[in-house]
Amino acid sequence: LPGLASGEIWAANSLTEPESGTGKDINSKAIKDGEDYILNGHKWLISLFPGYTKLIYAFAATEEGIT
Description:
The protein contains one helix and six strands, in the order αββββββ. By secondary structure, it is mainly β. The chain has a single domain (2-66), classed as Butyryl-CoA Dehydrogenase, subunit A, domain 2. The strands form three sheets. It has a two-stranded parallel ribbon with strand order 1-4. Strands 2-3 form a two-stranded antiparallel ribbon. β5 (61-62) and β6 form a beta hairpin. This is Acyl-CoA oxidase/dehydrogenase middle domain-containing protein. GO terms for molecular function: flavin adenine dinucleotide binding; oxidoreductase activity, acting on the CH-CH group of donors. InterPro entries: Acyl-CoA_Oxase/DH_mid-dom_sf, AcylCoA_DH/ox_N_sf, AcylCoA_DH/oxidase_NM_dom_sf.
């Protein structure tokens, strides 16, 4: 997080999905597997990628809702 805050590291946003856009109707799922999560879904647009980022964060729905 310090690298992101200082601007040394750039992160890409992977929110947009082909059939659900960017709203609360995200179809990608994050399923808890022990201490980890298994991500399953499709993203349509990843901002600032490729070439600029060292980190890509993804939005997904868990049993608790959007994370």
